[in-house]
Write a structure and sequence with these properties.
- With about 325 residues, the protein is α/β, with parallel strands linked by helices.
- The protein has eleven helices and 15 strands.
- Strands 1, 2, 3, 4, 5 and 11 form a six-stranded mixed β-sheet that branches.
């Protein structure tokens, strides 16, 4: 229900990974119940079935790109909507059961994605150590805490949760890497507009229409709507059939974005509204791109008022 905060959260597990770390930044989640799921589909199905109020799942990483399974799940099955985004830095750490010098570390447990993002650091600081693949960052921390491996690459929350001695921090080869997570719930009225919002859509273009994708982009461009992300995913029907995921600035309640959505509904084979929600602001002075002159919300409201007067014969 609108205005009722969620209390039951599910997240892509296991515990003590970046997803749980991101979830704990939300006050309602820190107070509520948090249940790890084995996969993104399982997390989203729990929300669809009413077993959870909301799910936090990864959407994209600044190094690895989009999380395909999340995009696929958002366009398949009963609709869900994004109500919040959370962006956190991906800061891997090296932890061990006890403090040991690097030259005594013979093996390191790590999820393959974690070791790939720390390859350069490992080559420089632990050239003698064998990197052993495990199922998750959490599993790496648990195995090091149990003494199965000399050290582990994990998230800071994992090192803290399993009482590992921190041997090194921020060991990623990409120090500015971040992951974007989204909080997803069953369809309801979007959060109120803040003036700095994101609207996410999945669109399906008419493949037998020349310039179909250009027509989509024009609906946004002519209204001064900033397209911040576009991603294509195969629909699974056959080669050449794609769905396009769009993130654009603005809120569904804005006049100009509302007009754009009506335009997309006219020119697309289908449009799935995925939510309007507050944009994560990395720093306080990270402001949205302003609309060009004549295309602001104020300009649209003024034009609508003028047209209403014209239609009633008020030409004075």
């Amino acid at each position: 229900m609108p205005g009722v905060p969620p209390t039951r959260f599910v997240f892509l597990g296991p515990e003590a990974t970046f997803t749980e770390q991101a979830l704990l930044t939300l006050p309602a989640a820190a107070r509520g119940t948090r249940t790890p799921s084995r996969s993104v589909p399982e997390a989203l199905d729990a929300v669809r079935a009413g077993e959870a109020d909301a799910a936090l799942v990864p959407l994209e990483n600044s190094v690895g790109g989009a999380v395909g399974i999340t995009l696929d799940e958002l366009i398949d099955g009963p609709p869900l909507t994004i109500t919040r985004e959370v962006v956190i830095p991906v800061e891997f750490v090296l932890g061990a059961r006890e403090a040991v010098p690097f030259d005594r570390i013979r093996n390191v447990a790590a999820h393959p994605q974690a070791s790939a993002q720390c390859r350069g650091w490992l080559r420089t600081h632990l050239p003698q150590a064998e990197v052993v693949d495990v199922l998750s960052n959490s599993a790496a921390a648990i195995s090091a805490a149990a003494g199965e491996y000399d050290a582990a690459i994990c998230a800071p929350i994992g090192a803290d949760r399993y009482r590992l001695s921190m041997l090194a921090e921020k060991i990623s080869d990409h120090p500015d890497a971040v992951t974007r997570f989204v909080l997803v719930s069953r369809p309801t009225a979007p959060p109120a507009a803040t003036g700095d919002d994101v609207t996410s859509l999945a669109i399906f273009i008419s493949h037998d229409r020349v310039g179909a994708l250009l027509a989509v982009l024009m609906e946004l461009a002519v209204r001064g709507i900033n397209l911040t992300r576009i991603e294509s995913r195969p629909t699974g029907e056959r080669l050449g059939r794609y769905a396009f995921f769009l993130d654009c600035t603005g809120h569904v309640s804005d006049d100009r974005l509302g007009e754009a959505l009506q335009g997309l509904h006219r020119v697309c084979a289908d449009v799935r509204f995925l939510g309007s929600y507050p944009r994560h602001r990395a720093v306080e002075d990270d402001r949205p791109v302003p609309a060009p002159a004549g295309l602001s919300d104020v300009d649209y409201a003024d034009a609508a008022e003028w047209l209403a007067r014209v239609r009633t014969g008020d030409l004075g």
